[in-house]
Amino acid sequence: MKFTRIAMPAVILAMIMSGSAPAVHAQDQDPGPLPTHVTDTASVMDIPAAIPTKASPRIEALLRRMTLQEKVGQLTQAAGGRSKTLNSKLTPSELDRVRTGKVGSYLHVAGAEPLRALQKVAVEESRLRIPLLFAMDVVHGYRTIFPVPIAIAASWEPEQWHHTASISAVEASNSGLHWTFAPMVDVTRDPRWGRVVEGAGEDAYLGSIMTAAQVRGYQGQSLSGAGTMMATTKHFGAYGAPLGGRDYGTAEISERALHEIYLPPFYAAMQAGTGSYMTAFNDIGGQPTTGNADLINGMLRARWGFDGMLVSDWNAVAELINHGIAGSRADAGTLAISAGVDMDMMSLVYANDLTKAVAANPRLMAHVDNAVRNVLTAKERLGLFDDPMAYHDLAAETANIRAAAHIVAAREVAERSIVLLKNSDNILPLAANAQKIAIIGAMATDVQSQLGSWRARGDKTEVISILEGIKAAAPEGSVVAFSAGAAPQSPDESGIPAAVTVAKDSDIVLLTIGEDYDLSGEARSRSSLALPPSQLALAEAIFATGKPVIVLLTGGRPLAIPEIDKNADAIVMTWLLGNEAGPAIANIVFGKVAPGGKLPIAFPRTTGAVPYSYSEYPAGRPANPDPVKDSNRFKDLPITQLYPFGHGLSYADIMISDLSLSSTTLSPGGSIDISVKLTNRDNRPGDETAQLYLRDVVSRQAQPKMMLRGFKRVTLQPGESRMVKFTLTPEQLTYYAKDGKWRAEAGRFDIMVGASAEDIRQRGSFTLSEGVESAVPAAAIATKTEVK
Ligand code: BGC
């Protein structure tokens, strides 16, 4: 069998081979010294005037009693521990800081009891008795750990996000926490970026729908309600567009791209009621978002109408110095607070340098007051002024952690997140008869990895591994043999011959390869999307046995796997699935559950093919499949993706047919219904996701080739048919025009309905009778969808 190994850049290779890739979160390392600066320009800085925000009479009264020192204390968020050693910094001297009003919020803390003790100090021993705000990165679970976000997005079911976020909120809020740093909603078209694992992929519409579901899931009906917590929609700006995919890097993007691609999920979050936002670390065209008054106070607050709270990212206020837009810490604080950043996470600039800045520049005081109002209002909305101990009931904490229903949900969402990428000759699901199954690959037992990049209080001993899951579900009489072969980040390939022996002695191989948890996430961008070398070597050796091979691919990002696509009989993208990874994967492999996940971001053929999106502008010479023609393509690659956006197979043969439109014309104020029929022509149940794409055929500004504007995942029994109806309004057709308005021009719009962006099954068109204008990002508007 011919098998080519793709070369990895030497540096990455060296890092992986030496096993030196850090296994700790970026924050747990020292940030390193900041540059020393000579000028302090805070006094001369021309800051924008503050537009006073409103707060309740109770907060206004409190504000009047506060000293400047107490005010900046409220704006200060400190770490009560490290991400992996929660509460470890809550020393006696830290408690003194609480007593003297120097801290308004803690992160990296947890637990009903320890946080009760801490809260007691604030509300009983500090002068103004203002309660503290407790926060944590509860991103895809608190103790019950769900799949990583990119995986949940692959379910294409906002209901899954809503449900899992609400469970996370129940577990976390009963453990003393008020506030989560989630959802992470950064759209990215570059999977080299390590944080692709934390978001919903490449698409603004899919991202917006998933965002709104999460915000509603965390926050419930009311922030002060039982079992809810405040969401932080992050990282506001264009954090998902760093140049070259290098984390923290500059976003060199157009105004249109900012508004049409990166900002819609943030808008959707606001409409869903997000209580807070976090600003991005990076800059947009040289303007760091943490100091960007136009974007925060100008757009988010004044134009969009957001009235909640904004927190910086970790140390990001001080890092305005590194960006080179502040000459000193006081300068950095001046820029951030006058831009609209209310709370300073971890840089202590507000705590230590803002008083000096206010003395030099009294106009700053109004900004400080606004920020204090926003922070105190958040505390008030959470119910903390009425009952600061509501979150600290030990019995409720114990009863809710890993409640039976939470584990059921973890398994269901894991099953629904799995994407079947390839299935030659319907080799999957495996037959129900006994056979000799070889499970090869270290990822089959790597329970730590299944917890993903934000494990919160997840415990690896509560993860069911892939090996355990397969063993438990294999048909009676089957023999399941395991060999680790090689681990993703280890240079040690000495286990491969033993794995080959196990594979040779089997009827079928389940090859578990891919990335482990530490190859994606913050500060984990990769210059290569190829499989780690050990994983390729293992795959090569196993394919050479000639046995049928089903690849269970793991990881938090799209991978360029042409060799695997060529040689594997089936490929299942299993991501990093949380506590119930093993049973979920086994249920798919043995056909107890039908796979129906769809990719929220394309898998490229090679690293050089990114960044890419199905939704780019068409170009004057649109990509042509014929390489001889000069067109918008690579000469050495087909114009298609290895697995396109929206791709995911089913075990059943499901047809999409009978497209019909309620009218051929859409007028301002009206709507149009687009219906298709889904039919299961198979003798087994299956899922299909009808995906509605739109194209504005002629407009004075070029329009994307396709834009997702609706989707619905449907489960169909054998022989069953169902109708899916999407209702579009003219506002959903608009683009971000040069005058800052959302506009659509009259004319023809094409619609496409398919099973992926490259598998369009039905086409139609309608005419917009007149131009329309709107104030809302088009991709943030949810399409009304009905299934009959
Ligand atoms: C990350 C944020 C996170 C914060 C607190 C930062 O390094 O960028 O996403 O919420 O740390 O843990």
Jot down its keywords.
binds beta-D-glucopyranose, globular, 23 helices, disordered N terminus, 788 residues
Strand order of the largest sheet: 11-16-15-14-12-13
Mean pLDDT: 94
Radius of gyration: 26 Å
Question: Please, how many helices?
Answer: 23
Ligands in the structure? beta-D-glucopyranose
Shape: globular
- SS-based structural class? alpha/beta
Distance separating the two termini: 49 Å
Largest sheet: 6 strands, mixed
Q: Strand percentage, roughly? A: 15-25%
Low-confidence stretches: 1-24
Q: Let me know the number of strands.
A: 28
Helix content: 25-40%
Could you describe the 3D structure shown?
The chain has 788 residues and is of the alpha/beta class. Helix content is 28%, strand content 18%. The protein has 23 helices and 28 strands. A hairpin with a 5-residue loop joins strand 23 and strand 24. The chain is globular and about 75 Å long. The N terminus is likely disordered.
